Amino acid sequence: MAFRFIAANAHPDHDTIAAFRRRFLQQIGTLFVQVLVVAREMGVLKMGTVALDASTSRCCRTARATPA
Question: Which of 31, 39, 49, 66 is positioned for an S-S bond with 45, CB 3.0–4.6 A?
Fold first, then answer.
């Protein structure tokens, strides 16, 4: 979702977005599935299996940073 659109072009902070997500998590999940179904029906999405794991990886915060 475009949070700036929903927030009337304001810049909501992380806590506001996190609280919104916690409050409406079930509805957001349902909406997300509906969006995927509509996209598939329009032919702009192929649905398949997506797997995510809980692994972590190091990343650099800047382009100039070097691995430690």
Answer: 39
Tell me if 60 sits within 8 A of 67, measured CB to CB.
Answer: yes
Distance CA 45, CA 16 (A): 31
Give the distance from CA 27 to its chain's centroid: 14
State how far the Cα of 12 lies from the Cα of 3, in Å rounded to an integer.
Answer: 8
pLDDT of res. 43: 86
Contact 28, 21 (CB under 8 A): yes
Whole-prediction pTM value? 0.48
Q: Quick one: average pLDDT of 16-44?
A: 88
